Amino acid sequence: MTLSPIAIALKRLPHGEGLPLPAYATPGAAGMDVVAAESLTLAPGARAAVATGFAIAIPPGYEVQVRPRSGLALKHGITCLNTPGTIDEDYRGEVKVILANLGQEPFAVVRGERIAQLVPAPVQRATLTEVETLDDTQRGTGGFGSTGQ
Ligand SMILES: O=c1ccn([C@H]2C[C@H](O)[C@@H](COP(=O)(O)OP(=O)(O)OP(=O)(O)O)O2)c(=O)[nH]1
Ligand SMILES: [Mg+2]
After folding, report:
1. Domains of the chain
2. Pocket-forming residues, ligand 1, beta carbon under 6 Å
3. pLDDT in tens, 92-120
4. Ligand 2 centre and the CA of 88: distance in Å?
5. Residue 80 CA: which ligand 1 atom is closest?
6. Above 0.90 for ipTM, yes or no?
7. How far apart are CA 141 and CA 60, in angstroms?
8. Most Cβ neighbours (<10 Å): which of 23, 87, 124, 145?
9. How far is CA 125 from CA 5, 13, 60, 61, 112, in A?
């Protein structure tokens, strides 16, 4: 099954001039790769909100998730600290990628290099009803390894 793509408006910011827009690397890619709009070095253990040089308007009922790239994670220990990052449909500021260096070496983020990927997703909202008691279940309050290894 192939879902129809959703339309996302993108505004390029001045410091994003000349950069490739987020794009799918292959016809079947789930995420659009996004490039850094600035260069910086992440020391081991450091983190930074890396500029992308664009802002977006997501249609109502959707979010965009900011996810790490597995190659950067495996080779260099670079991940998105808040993965999956959440871009709200009502956010109009610059999309930023919160990169963290969990590796042992400094990592150079280079303007124009792909640092993360964007995946749109439908949003299921909820209402909350406060109650005195919850229904019984087999699990009950067990969690965090209660069923064994
Ligand atoms: O990886 C991310 C995560 C968030 N954002 C932007 C878009 C998002 O809509 C906004 C708020 O994100 P979130 O709700 O995760 O952060 P918060 O700490 O709750 O901030 P706020 O109080 O602004 O909601 O920040 C990014 O650009 N990149
Ligand atoms: Mg928030």
Report:
1. 27-122 (2.70.40.10)
2. 66, 82, 85-88, 91, 95-96, 98
3. 999 999 999 999 999 999 999 999 999 99
4. 8
5. 1
6. yes
7. 36
8. 87
9. 21, 31, 12, 9, 35
